[in-house]
Amino acid sequence: MVEIVDIQAVRRISLAEHISPPFQLAPPRVLNLSLIPADILDAMRPGWFTGRFPAEPVAVTKLLDVYVTMEGLVFTQDKKLVRQSIAQHGPEECAQALGRINEVEQAGQVPVMWPASLLLRKRGEQNYGHWMVELLPRLWLAEAYLPLGSLVVPKFSGNLARVLRDSVALTSSLCPSFLEMGYHDVIFFKELVMVDGLTNHGVYMSPLAFSRTDNMVASVAGAHVRRLYVSRKGLHRGIRNEEDLTAFLATLGFLCVDPAEMTLLEQIKLFRNAECVVGVLGAGMTNIMFCSKGTKIINLAPTGMPDTFFYFIAGLRGLTYYEIRGVSCAQSDDRDAPFEIEKEHLAYVLRLAMPDSGL
Fold first, then answer.
1. CA dihedral of 304, 305, 310, 316, whole degrees rounded to 10
2. Residues 58, 141: contact at Cβ < 8 Å?
3. Where is the Glycosyltransferase 61 catalytic domain (predicted)?
């Protein structure tokens, strides 16, 4: 049994408290809302239908003598799990994390970090969107309060590793070292800085998550492309009839793109001047954060996927957001199965979003 403890009861030093400003978001415009299963819709209600979000504190705290393992779970020296480090981790994962700490400790293989380090890890950390919106901004809020020995980051590979370093270099005055951690790694930190309250995935996203986004965009010249289609071809949760949709969108001047292997600067450049972005729900759509205020966003998602992430990004960045829900092609409840979007439905929403599109 894992004992959970609030951060207020842990050996700690409070470094700062930012106040995230209040904001208001209208419910999203969703086509085929009635097709979303009741339990999935209920999971999205706090994000979609709260309306007015009050001011909230975002705390920067230095914890003393703690373990970190498995996507950012933090345990005290006496093996109590810090509540504020839990982010969509289930009870089984929490128990596995405690077991992993005990296993590594018994083998005498727990490395110890002495300089103060900033934790930039969470559940789902291997996702580009989670890094750009939920992890990187923690650095912006914490860097002013102490010299950091290192940034504790996910062990990325390929292009994501380059994005991680480029995003830090582009938005921070620090030249930190990076302490990469794999899923099963265990490290004991004498001083670990945590930022809590910036996001609650699916339920809340602070405007402070975009406090330096405009600076990022201003540093890159935009492309001349005005209409983009963001594909997930070859990945899970793709659109079965994507070829028909892309052929239709091409007649309207849309460029089909896959940002997965683009550099961060290339992604900013591509999305900065877009007037309309249509895309399949997934990491690539995170780049709508670089779009100008008023850009039209049409997010394509399966009916069984409880996601509010891009709705929050669009709302906080002043974008005009639409969503089309499509029926899964699988007989099971697999949320990542291919799904289908009717061309007529896409044309209808495009007419709403862009009355002068010629449709």
1. 80
2. yes
3. 128-298
Average confidence (pLDDT) over 281-301 = 97
CA distances from 332 to 162, 335, 337 (A): 37, 9, 9
In sequence order, the 6+-apart residues with CB closer than 8 A to the CB of 47 are: 202, 203, 204, 308, 311, 312
| Residues contacting 3, CB < 8 A, separation 6+ | 79, 80, 81
Burial degree of 83 (CB within 10 A; 0-12, 13-18, 19+): middle
- Give me the pLDDT at residue 288, please: 98
Domain range holding 95? 4-25+56-211
> Do 267 and 243 have their domain in common?
yes
CA 136-139-142 angle, to 5 degrees, is 155
Reported as half-sphere exposure (CB side, CA atoms, 13 A), residue 340 has a value of 9
**Banded model confidence at residue 357, pLDDT cuts 50, 70, 90:** confident
| Number of compact structural domains in the chain | 2
**What pLDDT shows up at residue 292?**
96
Model pLDDT for residues 55-79, shown as the tens digit of each residue: 999 999 999 999 999 999 999 999 9
For residue range 79-102, list pLDDT tens digits in order. 999 999 999 899 999 999 999 999
**Two structure tokens written together for 84:** 């504020």
If one counts every other C-beta atom within 10 angstroms of the C-beta of residue 245, the result is 23
Single residue among 173, 188, 211 that ends a domain in this structure: 211
Task: Please report, for residues 87, 124, 188, 202, 301, the alpha-carbon distance to residue 47 in angstroms, rounded to integers and kept in the order given.
Answer: 16, 19, 35, 6, 16
The rounded percent of the chain whose pLDDT value lies above 90 is 87
Residue with tokens 């998550």: 209
> Which residues make beta-bridge pairs with 264?
none
Residue 38 lies in a domain: no
